[in-house]
Write a structure and sequence with these properties.
The chain has 271 residues and is α/β, with parallel strands linked by helices. It folds into two domains: 1-95 and 181-271, Rossmann fold (3-Layer(aba) Sandwich); 101-178, no CATH class. The protein is built from nine helices and ten strands. It has a six-stranded mixed sheet, sandwiched between helices. Strands 2-1-4-5 form a four-stranded antiparallel sheet, with helices on one face. The structure holds adenosine-5'-triphosphate and magnesium ion.
Amino acid sequence: MIRIEGLSHYYAVRAGHAATQADGHEGKVERALRDINLEVNKGERLVLLGSSGSGKSTLLRCTNLSIRPTEGRVYIGGREITSLPPVEVKQIRRQVGVISQNFNLLEGASVLKNVILGRLGYVATLSSLLGRFSEEDVAIATEALKRVGLESYIQKRVSDLSGGQKQRVAIARAIAQRSTILLADEPVSSLDPKLMKEIMDLITEICTESNITLVASLHFLELAKSYATRMVGLREGQIVVENTPDELTDKDIIDIYGETEDWVLYGKRGF
Ligand SMILES: Nc1ncnc2c1ncn2[C@@H]1O[C@H](COP(=O)(O)OP(=O)(O)OP(=O)(O)O)[C@@H](O)[C@H]1O
Ligand SMILES: [Mg+2]
């Protein structure tokens, strides 16, 4: 479903900052990912682990080309997308739903409008500018909102919702988009522990029933273990561990996070 080959990404460092990890690259650059090779099969739930700054968000952003990787190739459903022109990339991207820690919603707009705008790849630009949506779009968005239990919130403004409800809107947006892939960057990091589980349960149910391939970054190890079918650990922009949740060892954890006493932080005794 997703194939990543030899992917490296270097961020330009703002003037005045020394290039600390230039690694032979010209100019002032900071290495965020180096030579990532990864395949994700249809229906898998892959969880990315790694300390802050290890490259999880960069990898997720490179996967749907919301940032163009410096080097390497990305294939979605067997098609190489890295060399496609922007118009075609847009078409492929409409099947890739994205959810993140800070929800990325239009706070001032209604719940329904947020979900319909997730269908932007489908909705004509002019109608979306005018806020006129087809009956079909409204029906699809309403159905998605029912699925996440928000049917009575359809006309509410997003800014009036709780964090858990906002994340449900973002999940509905991905459903309405008819996503076949869901990229979730710390989807539950801003929620309390009970909501974390609720939202992860919902994401897992939806991915299972619609055969959606999930790639998610999570900070809590126990949470990650209970939802992942496979786990990939990043450290300083490189994959250092690839394992199933059942077989993940203490050594794997040290390889990912370093020699750390912070087991609670990473969820070993957490929840
Ligand atoms: N826009 C940017 N410009 C320059 N450097 C960046 C940018 N975004 C990230 N980086 C750098 O790239 C590296 C990887 O960052 P990234 O955000 O991918 O890590 P992460 O694993 O998602 O961390 P976190 O767990 O804190 O979200 C870090 O060294 C970071 O400082
Ligand atoms: Mg991140």
